[in-house]
# Entry
Amino acid sequence: MTGRLGRTLITRDEVAARVAELGQTIGRDYAGRSPLLVGVLKGAVVFTADLVRAIPLRASFDFMGVSSYGSRARSSGVVRLTSDLSVSIEGRDVIIVEDIIDSGRTIHYLRRNLATRHPKSLALCVLLDKVARREVEVPVDYVGFVIPNDFVVGYGLDHDGLYRNLPDISVLERTSDAMAAGEAR
Ligand code: IMP
Ligand code: MG
# Structure
């Protein structure tokens, strides 16, 4: 264990209220259409599941897996597709659903990748945005919360595969071990 669960940043109730608002907004923006939500594995699974139920439209969802090369402390910026969609997005109104934007590299890659498949429209909905850490500019259409530069877990977000099942979003505090190893940014 290289981190310790710290203070709660966003409670489950705050998350639920914001997800409901996002669902209503998307419902208005896509009125009369059938958007396809593309969730990014695995972090956005929980958010996607809640968001799709908050959208009062004939919506559907699918998932895509990506991983970035490099150390955990610093992404190399090279993003690789690990699992592809099971449906064609040609002519579809696609909304990428992501848990968090940090440097912006993952979303930059995904946007470019999906754009080549000729969707009718392509938007991005992200639950958490660490604006201060942005290295690559990416247009974000829907944001749940702008958060400070803390490493957070819960509501789908993990550290070493753990904490995804926590209902609240909390800060993971680095232990001295973790800092020595340069982990858990
Ligand atoms: P980016 O490519 O630098 O924008 O990184 C985005 C990815 O890094 C997300 O999809 C997460 O998997 C991971 N990530 C970034 N910050 C956090 C965090 O605070 N907690 C958990 N995962 C994070
Ligand atoms: Mg992720």
Remarks:
- The two ends are 14 Å apart (CA to CA).
- The chain has four helices and nine strands.
- Residues 40, 43, 99 surround magnesium ion (ligand 2) (CB under 6 Å).
